[in-house]
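Question thread 4412

I'm putting together a teaching handout and wanted feedback from people who do this every day. The idea is simple: show students a protein as raw sequence, then show them the structure tokens that encode its fold, then repeat with a second protein so they can compare. Below is the first pair exactly as I plan to print it.
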Amino acid sequence: MGSCMLNLLPTPILVDLNGESAEKSATYISKNFSVSALGVKTDITNKTDVEILYNTVFNKFGRIDGLINNAANNPQMERSQKKRSGADSKTFP
């Protein structure tokens, strides 16, 4: 689905707690799909980080056309959360 979205969204913004990973992914997308991409370190559980992200993107591009939130669909994160909270979670392939 992600590569299909590249045809619709001219500038993907990749957001991750690991800024280096986000930047590497943005570079990969730029090289392999011939689009501009931006990687930004952001903790989406932190309101200030999200506000900074919003301002960075809006000031640079003037608009935000769409959002794909994949933050909760990370099996590693789900396992980590399960261990801490004791909650049951499902891992999808």
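The second pair follows. I'd like the answer to focus on this one:
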Amino acid sequence: MKNLIIIAILLSGCTNADISRSFSSGLIGCPVEKIEIKNEDSENGVHTWIAKCNDKEYACSYFYPNPATCTNLIIEDKLTPVN
């Protein structure tokens, strides 16, 4: 029943930070209570948001019936300084 409520909210164009945190938690490996949500948007059934945890940001999205996805936005510098 809970999943049906979440799906109905998302399809109606509404956004909810609690839902975004729940989707993000398992995908980014961070507890729900440590996730900050920003830039939430919902248009044509596509729910998008930025999840932040431990100074890392992730672009996340969800479109029913597909699973939610999150991609790390921080590109780590792998260059070695030249001496």
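Top answer:
Good format. For the second protein you could add a caption like this: Helices lie at 2-11, 17-28. Residues 11 and 45 are 5 Å apart (CA to CA).
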